């Protein structure tokens, strides 16, 4: 809480190159803070923090409407085309402590593409990386963001049909994070109404977690 009439949620986006990680961050912020474009190599090489304007009409607590402010930390991809795993991990760990060290992290968003299958090795590498960043309680503070959901829809998959046909690899990952997942339509996510739906789902995850935050003051050790 920043003020009695305002709530801030702190998020970090993690994922592979070209999953739409930076674009997802921009959608959550309702801005274009983060560089995002198609590239044969990893675009993001350092962490950067974006903060939304005050958003109304999203959350109420104790019968009163609160303004919401979203803070998103964009990160280099892992694996990265120009940085080692250790370089990415240390860069992200340092940025998390710097930006969220006092307030804590509400959610890490693992960004995956809904239009591409999730391989076992990719899942295991992603889980290992998040565990190294967040520690043993990572499952409580991680949600999956499935981007390019518009392409899955174009292929004839509703969300229900998509999950019914999903691989055991993806389903086990979703199960491990207590089914905290969101489909993000890359064509519609910047529309105000669509953004509000996504933010409400994220807030619901935070609420299910009793508004707890992951402390990060000691994340540089």
UniProtKB/TrEMBL annotation:
The keyword Transcription regulation does not apply. Signal peptide: none annotated. Keywords: GTP-binding, Nucleotide-binding. GO terms for molecular function: GTP binding. It holds the Pfam family AIG1. Residues 6-221 form the AIG1-type G domain. InterPro entries: G_AIG1, GIMA/IAN/Toc, P-loop_NTPase. The keyword Ribosomal protein does not apply. It comes from the Eukaryota. Belongs to the TRAFAC class TrmE-Era-EngA-EngB-Septin-like GTPase superfamily. AIG1/Toc34/Toc159-like paraseptin GTPase family. IAN subfamily. This is GTPase IMAP family member GIMD1.
């Amino acid at each position: 809480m920043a003020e009695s009439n305002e709530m801030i949620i702190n998020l970090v986006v993690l994922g592979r190159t070209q999953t739409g990680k930076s674009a997802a961050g921009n959608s959550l912020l309702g801005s274009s803070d983060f560089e995002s474009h198609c590239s044969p190599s990893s675009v993001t090489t350092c962490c950067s923090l974006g903060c939304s304007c005050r958003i109304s009409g999203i959350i109420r607590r104790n019968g009163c409407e609160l303004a919401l402010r979203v803070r998103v930390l964009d990160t280099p991809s892992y694996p990265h085309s120009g940085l080692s795993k250790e370089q990415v991990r240390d860069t992200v760990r340092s940025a998390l402590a710097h930006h969220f060290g006092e307030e804590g992290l509400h959610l890490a968003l693992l960004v995956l593409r809904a239009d591409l299958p999730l391989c076992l090795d990719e899942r295991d590498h992603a889980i290992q990386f998040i565990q190294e960043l967040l520690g043993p309680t990572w499952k409580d503070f991680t949600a999956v963001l499935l981007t390019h959901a518009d392409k899955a829809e174009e292929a004839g998959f509703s969300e229900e049909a998509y999950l019914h046909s999903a691989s055991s690899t993806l389903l086990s990952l979703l199960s491990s994070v207590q089914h905290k997942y969101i489909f993000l339509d890359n064509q519609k996510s910047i529309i105000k109404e669509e953004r509000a739906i996504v933010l409400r789902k994220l807030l619901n995850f935070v609420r299910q977690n009793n508004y707890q935050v992951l402390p990060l003051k000691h994340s540089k050790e």
